[in-house]
Write a structure and sequence with these properties.
mainly alpha; 11 helices; globular
Length: about 220
């Protein structure tokens, strides 16, 4: 019963629609009516700039961490590593589902990438840092947040199953499921990437301008 109550609480935490509340209370609009229509950090970055995009990303990430840390309320699990990890994964997934289908925002939320990252950070920080490395590298090379998120999520099960060889079967299945879920939630982005119509985030513009200038010089 205690576990069920924590899972419900984790879902409610995940349901906090950060970008929707920011857009409504600070700008008087619903961000889901603009840009990509997604209630996440990337669309917030595009519509309101890096300050608010970063704020939304951090809060959404903290939702995943907070959900995982709810496990601290059940001391029984502290002496059972496998059971503790399984509980943390379950709580984190409840938060991710809440982010994607938030009860506080008509069940129309974001794609859950930041909350998933918070979940992984709360359970296995080293793996999370490795995935961030993949994300930042791809973002630096392409400026596509969607592609960066997709490749970082695909790298997650690679780190868990191959590089770190985590023995917890439930966590291994979870890693694969996360990768598949991100692929499913990014279908439209994948389509736009293939068509060449996916928008880039406005970072590293000076680098791109230098490249264009060099090409023009030649």
């Amino acid at each position: 019963m205690n576990e069920l109550l924590l899972i419900v609480l984790a879902y409610l935490i995940g349901s906090i629609p950060t970008s929707v509340w920011v857009s409504k209370y600070f700008f008087g609009i619903d961000i889901r009516d603009y840009g990509s229509g997604n209630a996440g950090a990337t669309n917030t970055y595009r519509i309101f700039g890096p300050k608010w995009g970063t704020f939304v990303m951090i809060v959404d990430m903290m939702k995943g961490i907070a959900a995982v840390k709810l496990s601290l309320l059940l001391p029984y699990y502290f002496d059972h590593d496998t059971l503790l990890t399984n509980l943390q994964v379950g709580l984190g997934l409840a938060a991710v589902i809440g982010h994607i289908y938030p009860i506080w925002a008509e069940f129309k939320g974001g794609k859950g990438v930041a909350t998933i990252f918070g979940l992984v950070l709360g359970i296995s920080p080293v793996t999370a840092v490795c995935c961030v490395g993949v994300f930042l590298l791809v973002l630096y090379l392409t400026r596509f947040v969607s592609l960066s998120s997709i490749l970082a999520s695909v790298s997650f099960p690679v780190f868990i199953l191959v590089i770190f060889n985590v023995e917890n079967d439930f966590y291994r299945i979870f890693a694969i499921a996360v990768s598949l879920m991100v692929l499913v939630t990014h279908q439209k982005n994948i389509g736009r990437l293939l068509k060449g119509s996916e928008s880039k985030v406005p970072i590293l513009k000076y680098r791109d301008r230098r490249k264009e200038k060099r090409k023009a010089d030649f």
